[in-house]
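Repro:
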Amino acid sequence: MKEGDQGRFLISDFTLRGSLSMVTIRSPVARGRLLGIDCPSMPSSYTLIQASDIPGKNLLKGTSLPVLASDSLSYIGEPVALLAGPVRSKLESYAEQITVRAEAAQGVFAPDAAGEAVLARRSVRMGDPETAFAGAETIVEGHYTTGMQAHWYAEHHGAAALPSSTRLLIYTSTQWPFHVRAAAAQVLNMAPKDILIHSGRLGVQMDGKIWYPSLIASHAALAAFLLKKPVRIILTHQEDFFYAPKRHNTGITIKSALGKKGEITATMAEVTADTGAGGVFTDEVLDRICLGALGAYRYENLDLSGAACPTNTPPRGPFSGFGLAQGFFAAERHASKIAGALHEDPAEWRKNHAINAGAGFAIGVTPREMPSLDSLLDCAASMSDYNRKWASYELLRNSPKNRGEGGGCFRGIGIALAYQDNGFFYNDEKEKFSVELTLDKEGKLEIKTSMADEEENNLIWRRLAAEQLSLDLDAVSVGPNSTDKVPDSGPACLSRNIITIPRLIELAAAAIRKQRFRDPLPITVRRSAGQTRTINWNNAPIDQTALSHPGWAAGVVEIEMDPVTFAPVVRGMWLAVDGGKVISEERARRYLKFSMIHALDWASGDDISYSGGLIPGDVPARCCIPLAGEYPPMEIDFLWSDALVSKGLGDLPYSVIPAAYAQAVSQALDYSFEKLPLTAGDIWAAMRRDSE
């Protein structure tokens, strides 16, 4: 592979002379004990690798997950061994003959917030909610559930590992190359500097490749290290769908006491998140689910509890928003339910009761910059003609005579409001994520970062540095992202590529600008971002800068019910966004539209759930990326301001589109839907209740 090709490869394109292929041998039970592995007679060129062969620590870096299970088994499909060999067809044949002997135990498939195995808890209390409930004018309660969601990334998870006399090379597609390096080093008991990671093409991955590539890469590295040959592993479509991480499924109950003017006088909320087997980013995800469940509304009295619960299913993982979307679905459906109980326009209720400038989130953080949420909601309403349509569809909903008699279609429209934080809540004070800039003697500048090599990001970063140093754009380049040439810039998630990295580039460029005419060239400057200002949240210090400049969005979805199938047909989706300083409007629009489509798929697609620890076998075939011709009309508008700070915006559609969609279908069918996704079965069940 040529140096210039790094960052653009796919693992499926690799053809390595003399390389071995590898398949994963997996647990047949959801819970139990591994008794042994029976292997058929094979030629010496085929090798079975088990946990006992691991020279280092049998634990995936930063998690409680074993690299290969050695004793206890936690989910169906858990890796217990690796089979490597030269011919793929024979490898698969031998793998089918291997028997994993296990002593099965009763699996846990539903999260139990009252159980002893809870991985993390949250408890937040403000004021005196019990007294407020006792004097409430109205009480509104709902139980909101969200299902899992599969990622749409460029290719299935895979990795290739190449041993040499001095170091080990690993090729994989990952959002965090240095985590892959640390994970492989821990498994092999090697110095991290002796392992080199090349990260390939990611495409739009929706945070599906933050930690799981480290597990697959550790498998490839282990085999290459032991067998002294190049090894490549690529998960099949079935393996990837069944065992790779999905979005956390949640159950959220919210009960609100309302005053005479419809204001929330008190709220009680219970949040339960299913983490699968073992917790990955558990605190980050649970915090965001809890915060999202409170929405963007004012609270004086609050009692919130949250629990992250393990089950004997494959581990969940971060998804776009790290849990905010699940929480906001509950908060926004609840807001619409409150408006319905008060017979108010949901948009107007939101305008009257959302936080405003100077007010803070329930966590105790006050954003430095707050847009006018009234203006944001009005913008979305104006784009979609929401006010007229909502009033018209309410008349239709409240007039049984007109509700579809004679073959007419039901229609509905929904609106939702949400914010997006920027960066991690929990940062190790010893861990510094960095960017390095070097200005050479020829006046050329190189940007060094381990962030995934995306052409559009590179162009944005180059422009920022060129402006800072008054250089031609052609004089600025982004260097290869292999781990021996760049600093650890952290994972590419939570909009860090458009917020943290540009800020560090500007700081480093400013430092070079001060030195360039008094110090000899070349000049190299590194700037780092670590934990800054913290605030206590559940007796733990979290980095409040993640909430200091949130991005905001108001979204509208309009649907009509097909008169024959009664399936919801989306007539349009509209998004009004406050993204602060938008560095590339074209890129922002394209990314937001992709997220809107993916968010709609979560709201209206097939239900991905486990039955007895397994996803039913026909589900992967039904879950596919929609074709361009199937996209509904979409419109995006930015709430322009003179803000100098960029804000995260790519995850916002996940927090507004599903709730707006559910509200639109609820209005159309005069039935309050409180779950995601809304399947054909849910809709038919609601219609049968209506007919009864």
